[in-house]
Amino acid sequence: MIVYLLLLIAVTINVSYRGGAFSYVLFYCVLFYIPISLIHMVYTVLALRVYQETDKKLIPKNSSVGYQFAIENAWIIPISEVRFVYDSEITFFGEDFTNQSYSLLPKGKQEINSTMKFLYAGSYDAGIESYYIQDMFGIIRLKKKVGIPIRVHVLPVITDVARNDIENISSSNNGNLFSMNTLENSLGNDVRKYVEGDSMNTVHWKLYARTGDMYSRLPEHQESEMVSMILVTEVSDSTIESIKQRDSFLEYLISACEYFGMKKKPLMIVYYYVGVKTFMIDSPDSFQEFYTEVLIRIGTKQASGFEQEMIEEVSKKNSSVIIFREKECRLESL
């Protein structure tokens, strides 16, 4: 800009002392360069169309997915010197196309295919987030956010990060926090056809005597055996610190849930999502359902103001209660 102002002063002095057609043409070219450039930049913002999508919306952390990006000039004047920006702290492209500028002819379109890898679990905006427009000589520069970023739901990695804490809490409660009766001692009245491998202790012998067919009694979860986990989530403001915090929270949470699901111990998740919601994990199948379908709703609404409502919900159950606060990212018994 300083160079431009010096040039404008120089051509003004030149036209004042020398005059002539060439001096006036040069003067008006320099004088109107900035206004014309600004008009063209406004035109670019109005005419540029940006489209982007991924092959999946539910994506495992640290895995690559297909990514499609397209830009289009919807009007009849060429577009030039457009550079695109993304947040490299949360994701990166397999082939980075943002290190160059792009130009489009009238009604022109350009498509780019690449891959994306997401570094943190959680729900957040990713992909191209904005673009820069500048004049021919780089005197002025404008940054504009894209109209529709990609909203992705990234699943956390399943680890055993919470295992020690769960076992420590259990030990601190004299081993009774997660104690369960055996299936044989808590059999209900529901039955199914006997399957080879079922314990003979589960066979409904009275029904067998009456029908001649073998049926196995299904276990009945006793509320006294159940653990309730209250999730106290915070509002995510989309900063990198908030995304990292949510990533740690989800990895810890899914580790605890996987522990219960694989051991077939009943765990009731209590969370806030347009009201207090609950979900029971008591088997590998129910854990998988929670992981792929329910987890994306965790943390979409702030729960810190509804902690008492969630406590009242679990107080109706005869169960042990633990609280998992996102801010501290640790378990505590109630």
Largest sheet: 5 strands, mixed
The value of Rg in angstroms is 31 Å
Distance between the termini: 63 Å
What is the chain-wise order of helices and strands?
Answer: HHHEEEEEEEEEEEHEHEEHEEHHEE
Number of helices: 8
Protein structure class: alpha+beta
Description:
Mean pLDDT is 88; it is low at 179-185. The protein has helices at residues 2-17, 21-31, 33-47, 163-172, 205-211, 240-263, 284-294, 307-315, and strands spanning 48-54, 58-60, 64-73, 79-86, 91-93, 102-104, 109-118, 122-126, 128-134, 141-145, 150-155, 187-193, 215-219, 227-232, 267-272, 276-281, 320-325, 330-333. The longest helix is centred in the last third of the chain and has 24 residues, at 240-263. It is elongated. The protein is an alpha+beta fold. The strands form five sheets. A five-stranded mixed β-sheet has the order 16-15-14-17-18, sandwiched between helices. It has a four-stranded antiparallel β-sheet with strand order 1-3-7-5. It has a four-stranded antiparallel β-sheet with strand order 6-4-9-10. The protein contains eight helices and 18 strands. Helix 1 (2-17) packs antiparallel against helix 2 (21-31) and helix 6 (240-263) runs antiparallel to helix 7. The termini are far apart.
Helix and strand topology:
Blueprint: H1 2-17, H2 21-31, H3 33-47, E1 48-54, E2 58-60, E3 64-73, E4 79-86, E5 91-93, E6 102-104, E7 109-118, E8 122-126, E9 128-134, E10 141-145, E11 150-155, H4 163-172, E12 187-193, H5 205-211, E13 215-219, E14 227-232, H6 240-263, E15 267-272, E16 276-281, H7 284-294, H8 307-315, E17 320-325, E18 330-333
Parallel strand pairs: 2-11, 14-15, 14-17
Antiparallel strand pairs: 1-3, 3-7, 4-6, 4-9, 5-7, 8-11, 9-10, 12-13, 15-16, 17-18
Helix pairs in contact: 1-2, 6-7
